[in-house]
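$ ./design --mode recover --in tokens.txt
reading tokens...
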């Protein structure tokens, strides 16, 4: 297959070489050997097979793959080694200095053909009609060993359903027979791939991929000898433990495991390297196509964030880009009660520009604003915040990070001097103790979770701080050393209690603190944290965490070696989210776990470009690069670049925009790629604010919930249809490459530019003239110090870089704070625990916390329009059996979930994953829209909503709530579209 591969990464490492080299790379002293007369030098421990491939010599193989440990079962890779008896398997034989290897001889050819004959004798010969024809390693290996006929007559086999000796299933279908007891029919249960046991050659690659790469252990080899077969626990793949990551499909050398898309659309003929648009891991993929038809997404082996792995969303859930619900024409309407009317782009943009200018003329320049998207590229996000500052003339720009990770920026900025995580994902491979707090990696960041589980299987210890028993607490071959099952809302008290143990028992790293941190601030912090009120015994009643467990966890983290902290929205989405981030940073500095591999403070970012959206200046008080808008020297940089004067007054945050709209002061909004009506808290309040505005412009793929209140809809482009960059949770800037032409006609950056130019043209100001997103990145680099060395040319040459990337670090910065903190010295912060104002009581005695599930993503706009709904078709409330029994609630029943803000109904499932007094649900489906229940309480520093602590009551229900009924009726009215001719 002809691939588009980015160029060489660095001297000696050619990432244009996308071959499977058979066994993993090794690192060691150089060893030189001779393979078929060619001298090759490789690291000590390298297999003979890999050395041969590196010398340009292909050795036949079936069971070997360079993302799996050597197995040595297929016996095709036999070689001869001078001075050794027999024909060892090259995949399991390490190189030695001076070794002389022969990969070709008459003896080897005879042995390989004999082995291949045995494989083919129990394999159907319907290659011409097989979906893997032309992309089958068994087929390739047969040609490589010179097999032209099979001497064995068909006998007992696994592929002939009739048991009549047919060589192909198509032949057997035409003839009668008694039936073959060994034949197992194809399993079509998974929506994305099939399992055909009749084509299995028992290479075990799928089983090993599930074990070694994914870490789920869902597959096994059952039976013995001739009766051996790959099997799953359960009736079929769909109901098994399989998480549909695709590792087994990618590993399979035949059509035993095969994408349904390949069977339908044919073997792809070209590919483009791009970056996944789901979570903050930022996986690299090969988008493989036939013409302009996307056939499959295959994780790219050189992707530095995913290292050739994927999850069900990135691997298979890309079909939303071609879904029938997608809007491809601009639409406008005078009032939100009117039906939509399709128009041309110029008409829609002119309508929007006229309305926005009229609002500003009447209500002032600060009466409009923008919301940037964490799903769009850096370049697109940069232009949206520039639209607010350079065209609207205000700083009313915010982003979805406001409602997820804004406390990360504030907390890490205060303590470390930079607003981002400290490590790359590779760092986890050197961790000895991992603290996971408020994150669910197996569901939210599954590719990183697989790497973490691999390290845990190697012996690293795990501490989980979470009110819910998430999967990583106990799963196949992984069990947490400590699960601190805290009461929701008490994160600060738990982390402070851990710090209390470390300080009072003298377990801190004093040398690190003296060398790297402000010593006077530490002494002040130490005095604060030693107070007996922070002792685990004092906090036990408050947090619900037994003092003995907390002390043991604190000692393990302080003394267990390299300690890494990974956290998620269970930390930030609280009234004390910023305080918890600072407490986590304190804990890392206290134990010296900063500035080297295997340690660090690592926020697991939710959306694909939430880090980039923050980097690009989406917050109302910061210009790109986290520099405050009030600073004249910072404004001067952008005023010179943009040719306009920048308002020094910080703008409105999203909650402020909504409040101001209800008060009549904020009247117009351009919302790109975010669905605030479903994602933001207190849905009724958000709806009232949107309804109060004079002009709401929604720029998205689908008519989302926010579009119910929009006056202009601008159809967006998917990640497959654009060029640009995403920045993932490890600060890695990855290229997004255009795989196909935009179905709506334009990439998103072009649409924002057209809107800006429509407004500028009406007011007689100079227009924008970008012709490619690379030019936007050049402007970012020219104005933002941490991006100073970033260009498309450098990204093509290196594959990706992690900021800061500048003259001091031309290839980026994988690890932060190595020599010292970026902001000077580390700052210990006082982290006083202050209980949330949201309290339980007689009316609302339970605590609701929310989160995500593996198969769905955020508000579900993308994944709900794919086959992923087979695993999660509705939001479900998790409830402890004790709480259910006292309320007369049974498994699967409809229940009313009510809070002080509102109520909704949904089904319930009974489980001890949650503690008594706690209930949990997801927010992926608008029919439930869990945020109608959540409150407007928020983080004290950033206004990040307190999604994770809502006082609720649960009771039996006979049907949808009043709000749900009104919402359905309003949605039907709001989404009417007139035919284009009307």
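writing sequence...
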């Amino acid at each position: 297959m002809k691939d588009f591969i980015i160029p060489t990464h660095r001297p000696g490492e050619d990432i244009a070489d996308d071959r499977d080299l058979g066994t993993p790379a090794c690192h060691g002293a150089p060893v030189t050997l001779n393979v078929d007369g060619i001298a090759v030098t490789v690291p000590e421990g390298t297999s003979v097979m890999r050395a041969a491939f590196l010398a340009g010599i292909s050795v036949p193989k079936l069971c070997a793959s360079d993302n799996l440990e050597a197995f040595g079962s297929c016996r095709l890779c036999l070689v001869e080694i001078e001075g050794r008896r027999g024909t060892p398997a090259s995949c399991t034989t390490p190189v030695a200095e001076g070794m002389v290897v022969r990969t070709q001889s008459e003896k080897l050819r005879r042995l390989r053909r004999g082995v291949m004959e045995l494989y083919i004798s129990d394999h159907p010969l319907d290659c011409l009609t097989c979906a893997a024809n032309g992309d089958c390693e068994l087929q390739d290996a047969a040609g490589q060993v010179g097999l032209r006929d099979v001497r064995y007559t068909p006998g007992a086999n696994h592929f002939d359903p009739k048991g009549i000796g047919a060589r192909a299933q198509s032949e057997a279908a035409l003839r009668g027979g008694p039936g073959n007891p060994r034949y197992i029919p194809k399993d079509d249960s998974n929506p994305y791939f099939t399992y055909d046991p009749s084509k299995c050659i028992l290479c075990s690659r799928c089983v090993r991929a599930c074990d070694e790469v994914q870490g789920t252990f869902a597959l096994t080899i059952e039976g013995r000898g001739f009766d051996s077969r790959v099997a799953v626990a359960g009736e079929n793949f769909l109901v098994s433990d399989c998480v549909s990551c695709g590792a087994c499909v990618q590993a399979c050398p035949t059509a035993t495991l095969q994408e349904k898309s390949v069977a339908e659309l044919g073997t792809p003929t070209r590919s483009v390297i791009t970056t996944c648009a789901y979570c903050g891991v930022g996986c690299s993929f090969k988008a493989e196509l036939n013409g302009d038809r996307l056939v499959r997404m295959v994780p790219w082996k050189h992707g530095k964030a995913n290292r050739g792995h994927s999850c069900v969303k990135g691997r298979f859930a890309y079909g939303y880009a071609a879904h029938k619900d997608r809007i491809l024409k601009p639409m406008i309407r005078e009032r939100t009660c009117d039906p939509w009317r399709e128009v041309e782009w110029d008409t829609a943009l002119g309508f929007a520009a006229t309305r926005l200018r009229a609002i500003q003329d009447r209500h002032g320049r600060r009466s409009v604003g923008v919301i940037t998207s964490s799903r769009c590229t850096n370049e697109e996000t940069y232009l949206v915040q520039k639209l607010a500052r350079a065209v609207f003339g205000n700083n009313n720009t915010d982003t979805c990070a406001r409602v997820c990770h804004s406390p990360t920026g504030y907390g890490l900025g205060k303590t470390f001097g930079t607003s981002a995580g400290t490590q790359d994902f590779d760092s986890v491979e050197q961790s000895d103790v991992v603290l996971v707090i408020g994150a669910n990696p197996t569901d939210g960041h599954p590719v990183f979770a697989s790497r973490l589980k691999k390290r845990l299987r190697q012996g690293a210890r795990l501490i989980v701080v979470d009110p819910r028993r998430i999967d990583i607490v106990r799963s196949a071959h992984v069990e947490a050393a400590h699960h601190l099952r805290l009461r929701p809302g008490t994160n600060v008290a738990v982390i402070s209690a851990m710090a209390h143990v470390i300080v009072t028992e003298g377990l801190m790293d004093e040398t690190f603190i003296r060398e790297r941190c402000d010593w006077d601030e530490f002494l002040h912090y130490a005095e604060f944290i030693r107070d007996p009120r922070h002792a685990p015994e004092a906090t036990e009643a408050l947090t619900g965490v037994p003092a003995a467990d907390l002390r043991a966890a604190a000692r393990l983290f302080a003394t267990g070696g390299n300690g890494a902290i990974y956290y998620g929205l269970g930390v930030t989405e609280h009234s004390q989210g910023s305080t918890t981030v600072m407490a986590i940073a304190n804990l890392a500095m206290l134990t010296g776990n900063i500035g080297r591999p295997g340690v660090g403070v690592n926020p697991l970012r939710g959306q694909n470009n939430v880090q980039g959206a923050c980097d690009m200046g989406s917050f109302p008080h910061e210009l790109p690069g986290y520099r405050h808008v009030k600073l004249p020297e910072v404004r001067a940089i952008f005023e010179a670049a943009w040719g306009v004067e920048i308002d020094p007054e910080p703008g409105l945050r999203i909650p402020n925009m909504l409040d101001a709209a209800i008060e009549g002061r904020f009247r117009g909004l351009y919302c790109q790629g975010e669905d605030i009506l479903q994602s933001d808290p207190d849905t009724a309040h958000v709806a009232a604010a949107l309804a109060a505005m004079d002009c709401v412009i929604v720029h998205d793929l689908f008519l989302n919930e926010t579009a119910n209140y929009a006056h202009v809809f601008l159809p967006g482009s998917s990640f497959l249809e654009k060029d640009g960059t995403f920045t993932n949770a490890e600060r890695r800037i990855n290229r997004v490459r255009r795989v196909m032409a935009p179905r709506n006609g334009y990439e998103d950056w072009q649409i924002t530019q057209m809107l800006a130019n429509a407004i500028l043209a009406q007011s007689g100001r100079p227009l924008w003239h970008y012709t490619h997103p690379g030019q936007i990145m050049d402007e970012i680099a020219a104005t933002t110090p941490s991006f100073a060395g970033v260009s498309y040319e450098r990204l093509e040459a290196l594959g990706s870089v992690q900021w800061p990337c500048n003259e001091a670090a031309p290839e980026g910065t994988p690890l932060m704070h190595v020599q010292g903190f970026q902001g000077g010295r580390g700052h210990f912060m006082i982290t006083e625990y202050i209980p949330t104002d949201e309290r339980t009581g007689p009316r609302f005695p339970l605590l609701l916390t929310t989160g995500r599930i593996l198969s769905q993503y955020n508000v579900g706009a993308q994944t709900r329009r794919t086959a992923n709904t087979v695993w999660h078709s509705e939001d479900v409330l998790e409830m402890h059996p004790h709480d259910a029994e006292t309320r007369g609630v049974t498994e699967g029943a409809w229940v009313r979930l009510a809070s002080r803000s509102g109520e909704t109904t949904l089904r319930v499932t009974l489980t001890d994953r949650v503690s008594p007094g706690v209930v949990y649900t997801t927010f992926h489906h608008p029919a439930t829209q869990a945020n109608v229940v959540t409150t407007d309480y928020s983080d004290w520093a950033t206004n990040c909503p307190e999604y994770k602590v809502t006082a609720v009551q649960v009771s039996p229900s006979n049907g949808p709530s009043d709000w749900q009924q009104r919402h359905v009726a309003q949605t039907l009215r709001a989404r009417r579209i007139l035919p284009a001719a009307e």
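exit 0
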